[in-house]
Predict the structure of Alpha/beta fold hydrolase.
Amino acid sequence: MTATALHRTLTVPGATLHYQLAGSGPVLLLAQSGEGDADRTVDLVPHLADSFTVVTYDRRGLSRSTLDDPARPVTMADHADDVARLLAEVARITGSDGTAGRAVMVGFSMGAAIGLQVVVRHPGVLGTLIAHEPVMPNLLPPADRTEHVTELLAIREAHATGGAAAAFPAIARHLGIDPRHDDTEEGLTPQPLTPRRLANFDFFIGTEFAAVTTDGLAPAELAAAAGSSGTRILPATGRTTRPTVHTYRCALALAELLGTEPVTFPGGHNGNTAFPRATARTLKAVLGR
């Protein structure tokens, strides 16, 4: 199964975003985490493009999304504003009502945290947000929050002193990932550690970790926005993610905050890339409810 993607760019304050469109139907934005750019979901998009206009993009600073001033810090607010502007542009291109209204956003890890920021900063932009294991320490009780931030800072320190080779094992432990033994679907597109992906990892750990660990979005603020924005927020966890993983606990905390039950998705923290076919089936089932 293939889906031909249309590649475009959008100029936003402080950056130029690269994004891709595939399929037709209601707008569905996939927001990755880590070094994930628009190509990271190459195996997932074709299984959604028969039902949705699927939008993927490079976050500012990653791959083809360039920064006007690379020395300027990137914030979670920047990312949320980028999403709102991107969805407004997609609405214009696809000939909808001229607004970004009622798009679906599926965010994974940092992408989920960005989606929660969109709900607060841009009420009404999203009709539904699926927040899969958001990396958002503020959702946790104080002791767990401190532990989560401490782990993230330790990964950043490992990267600063030993580069990617030192950071990768720390990230895998933090997220409960075992690349040697974790299962995947067959026939996945190879994702080698190219120089571009390594550069993205450097940016993610060196720059975006600061955006996450200094983010001031409070649970009360999020709960109030969720209640007034009309956005349906669906917390989600990976079926095989270890319950001790902080992002898993963030999803549970989000569900408790909103008075709902988390949706279970295939695989672990990176289940959307390890099990794209099963993830697409789950997404369609959840969004069809």
Observations:
- The longest helix spans residues 142-175.
- The helical segments are 76-94, 110-121, 142-175, 195-213, 219-229, 246-258, 271-274, 276-287.
- Strands lie at 6-12, 15-23, 27-31, 53-57, 66-67, 103-108, 126-132, 232-238, 263-265.
- The mean pLDDT is 93.
